[in-house]
Automatic annotation (TrEMBL):
Cell compartments where the protein resides: Membrane
Molecular-function GO terms, alphabetical: GTPase activator activity
Principal subcellular localisation of the protein: membrane
One BP term from GO: negative regulation of signal transduction
Domain RGS stretches: 73-189
Protein name (Swiss-Prot/TrEMBL): Regulator of G-protein signaling 16
Membrane topology field: Lipid-anchor
């Protein structure tokens, strides 16, 4: 729009812009550019959100399958980190978590490479779990206890094998079946099954 007449609004606006400092005009352009970037961000955010939902859905399917696998065998339960955590929580309700803690301590012990650390760890595990009236004494027979005591004189990565095996058998035959029948595990399996049904109905 152009106008040469005095008092024309367009002429007044042009004169007003001309009197503005250059820095103000540059800032206005910069602001416009930033606004343009912000207008595109929700679209990017939407894409990211979709990707996150897909990953979360995949993790849920994996965890559901894992929960159902725990009932297949005690080995399947012990292979799963979340399975061990759930089983440990259950054992606490029965005041027998020391059996699993001892088994886990033995597993960690077997990975020790230093002979010095092997000996100190062996003594610590024996004093905490195996010896008579230990703070967290596991339920093993006298003969196994004595064999383990003798093994400490020349500690190797296998010195707890017999005691660990006895404790594992006790958990598998006694605590594990009760865990599978517990309300907490039954709830987990129901949730896992319902997620599986929901997945099939959407495919």
């Amino acid at each position: 729009m152009s106008c040469w007449m005095p008092g024309c609004p367009a002429l007044s606006m042009c004169r007003g812009l001309a009197t503005l400092p250059i820095t103000c005009l540059e800032r206005a352009k910069d602001l416009k550019s930033r606004l343009g970037i912000l207008l595109h961000k929700p679209e990017l955010g939407h894409r990211t959100g979709t990707s996150s939902k897909l990953q979360l859905g995949s993790r849920r399917r994996d965890s559901s399958r894992e929960v159902l696998e725990w009932r297949e065998s005690f080995d399947q339960l012990l292979k799963s980190k979340s399975g061990v955590t759930a089983f440990h929580t259950f054992l606490k309700t029965e005041f027998s978590e020391e059996n699993l803690d001892f088994w886990l301590a033995c597993e960690d012990f077997k990975k020790t490479r230093s002979k010095t650390k092997l000996a100190s760890k062996a003594n610590r595990i024996f004093e905490e779990f195996v010896q008579n009236e230990a703070p967290r004494e596991v339920n093993i027979d006298h003969e196994t206890r004595e064999i383990t005591r003798k093994n400490l004189s020349g500690a190797t990565s296998t010195c707890f094998n017999e005691a660990q095996a006895k404790t594992r058998t006790l958990m598998e035959k006694d605590s594990y079946p009760r865990f599978l029948k517990s309300a907490s595990y039954q709830d987990m399996t129901k949730q896992a099954t319902s997620r599986g049904i929901s997945k099939r109905s959407h495919t």
